[in-house]
Design a protein that fits this description.
The structure is a single chain. The chain is an alpha+beta fold. It has a six-stranded antiparallel sheet with strand order 2-1-3-4-5-6, with helices on one face. It has a two-stranded antiparallel ribbon with strand order 7-8. The longest helix has 23 residues. The radius of gyration is 21 Å and the shape is globular. The termini are far apart.
């Protein structure tokens, strides 16, 4: 599954903004308070939505409300467009306040496919990759503060990874994911070896050439 774009109709400081994601790797950068963490959270919620099940709100749900309601008090909603492995393009819509206008729609056929990934009363697209919104957040979605938290929670992380692997189907397994990452790294990055035509080696050589040209230009001016 590839995420093409996410739209924050109203999410924290974001209002009516869309983030386009390139095939492969997308790097989002900016100064402090530019909204990077808000986009990170919005993308997760746009995929998994917000549970509508009975019972008390979970800790993660309470934190979601406290941190990411629209700062201007407007409508709280996110959308995302994803492309599945079978080629289908699906739009996900989540009304995070009323939790009523929540659905997954096949954009080619105009057909509602919410039932394929319904979880706790809301569409959860992470089910298309063998996970659910809680497992996705615990294993594949690492917040900035979570990097340090992992040092004291190795056992819990191991449990969540085992759960993620166990819920996979077909080729969607932990070992398959690792193999795909290795293949992507080999083809799209490569190693910094003499004569290599992979992107990393090419970038290194271009960088070295640019530095030399810069040094030559500096010497010519002095």
């Amino acid at each position: 599954m590839h995420v093409e774009q996410v739209t924050a109709d109203g999410f924290g400081p974001l209002s009516g903004e869309t983030l386009e994601l390139a095939p492969g790797l997308t790097v989002v950068w900016g100064p402090n308070e530019a909204g990077k963490s808000s986009w990170h959270a919005a993308l997760l919620v746009a995929l998994g939505g917000r549970r509508r099940g009975r019972g008390a709100a979970t800790r993660s749900d309470r934190e979601l409300v406290a941190r990411h309601r629209p700062w201007d008090g407007g409508r709280w909603a996110v959308r995302a467009t994803v492309v599945l492995d079978d080629g289908r393009r699906v739009e996900l819509r989540h009304d995070l306040d009323g939790k009523v206008e929540c659905r997954a729609t096949d954009l080619t056929l105009g057909r509602d496919v919410t039932g394929e990934v319904l979880g706790d009363g809301a569409p959860d697209a992470t089910r298309w990759v063998g996970l659910d919104r809680e497992t996705m957040a615990a294993t594949a979605w690492v917040p900035q503060a979570g990097v340090l938290a992992l040092r004291g929670a190795a056992a819990g992380l191991q449990e969540q990874l085992a759960r993620a692997a166990a819920t996979g189907s077909g080729e969607v397994t932990a070992s398959r994911a690792l193999a795909l990452l290795e293949e992507f790294s080999r083809e799209r990055v490569g190693r910094d070896l003499p004569g290599s035509s992979r992107p990393l080696a090419l970038a290194r050589r271009e960088h070295t050439g640019a530095r030399r040209a810069c040094d030559d230009a500096h010497e010519a001016r002095t």
